[in-house]
Design a protein that fits this description.
- The protein is of the alpha/beta class and about 260 residues long.
- The chain folds into 2 domains: about 5-140, 3 Solenoid (UDP N-Acetylglucosamine Acyltransferase, domain 1), CATH 2.160.10.10; about 200-250, Udp N-acetylglucosamine O-acyltransferase, C-terminal domain (Udp N-acetylglucosamine O-acyltransferase, Domain 2, Up-down Bundle), CATH 1.20.1180.
- About 15% of the residues lie in helices and about 25% in strands.
- It has helices at about 195-200, 205-220, 225-235, 240-250, and strands at about 5, 10, 15, 20-25, 30, 35, 40, 45, 50-55, 60, 65, 80-85, 90, 95, 105, 110-115, 120, 125, 130, 135, 140-145, 150, 155, 160, 165, 170-175, 180-185, 190-195.
- The relative contact order is 0.08.
């Protein structure tokens, strides 16, 4: 299908615009960018730098994706922002590319990034995550899949958020957030298993039961993480979810906050 590009939009001569793309008035699509099929870019939004946007995304007014990193060590190196398919990037969101030469910030598929959120340089974001209004990710943050970040949450650089986790609004995240967990606080600590989220995603009762047992041993009994991992390995059915949890805890570099 034909493109629908408003005559008042500013399109770089080397930008690659696929079919069925809609670009509103006063949007800026810079040189070296690529916009996938079916994507909608609303008025006054900006796609800058070496940015690739996938298919069927929706970038709302005043969002700026691909502007240079907010990093003092950045000296103009050629770096990239890669955005997957079917992402919704709401008003005034900012997303930066990587800092070093050839470095990338990567956004997966089917994410909802609500208004005023920020995803900094060199972050890696998986699929089907929700970032509520004003959530802020510092550099090098990694987020798995199906995570929920509450409004006004600030996440320290190099932290990891595991699959199916949820972070309560206004939390201060300075350590890793385990998969399947509900974390909250200043700083955020593990409060419970993300039971509601797991039920919504149709996890079986047995999987939830195994994760409950593992969570109790790891986060609420009086064990070191090394001791807890051994106990879980000896006493809990080694489902994929339990193995994912144990691997995350064992490989954590920033540590995990416990109550």
């Amino acid at each position: 299908m034909a493109q629908n590009i408003d005559s008042r939009a500013m399109i770089g001569s080397s930008a690659k615009i696929a079919d069925n793309v809609k670009i509103g008035p006063y949007a800026i699509i810079a040189d070296n960018t690529e916009i996938g099929e079916g994507t909608v870019i609303e008025p006054f939004a900006q796609v800058l730098g070496h940015t690739k946007v996938g298919s069927n995304c929706h970038i709302f007014s005043q969002a700026v994706v691909g502007s240079i990193p907010q990093d003092l060590k950045y000296k103009g190196e050629k770096s990239y922002l890669v955005i997957g398919d079917r992402n919704r990037i709401r008003e005034f969101v900012t997303i930066n590319p990587g800092t070093e030469k050839d470095a990338k910030t990567i956004i997966g598929n089917d994410n909802l990034i609500m208004a005023y959120s920020h995803i900094a340089h060199d972050c890696v974001i998986g699929d089907e995550n929700v970032f509520a209004n004003g959530s802020t990710l510092a550099g090098y943050v990694e987020v798995g899949k199906n995570a929920v970040v509450g409004g006004l949450v600030a996440i320290h650089q190099f932290c990891r958020l595991g699959d199916y986790s949820i972070v309560g609004g206004c939390s201060k995240v300075v350590q890793d957030v385990p998969p399947y967990s509900m974390c909250d606080g200043h700083p955020a600590v593990v409060r419970a298993l993300n039971l509601v989220g797991l039920k919504r995603k149709k996890f079986s009762n047995q999987v939830i039961k195994d994760l409950k047992k593992a969570f109790k041993i790891i986060f609420f009994d009086n064990h070191s993480f090394a001791e807890a991992i051994k106990i879980v390995e000896a006493t809990v059915d080694p489902t994929d979810q339990v193995r994912t949890l144990l691997n995350f805890v064992a490989t954590s570099k920033r540590g995990i906050g416990k109550k």
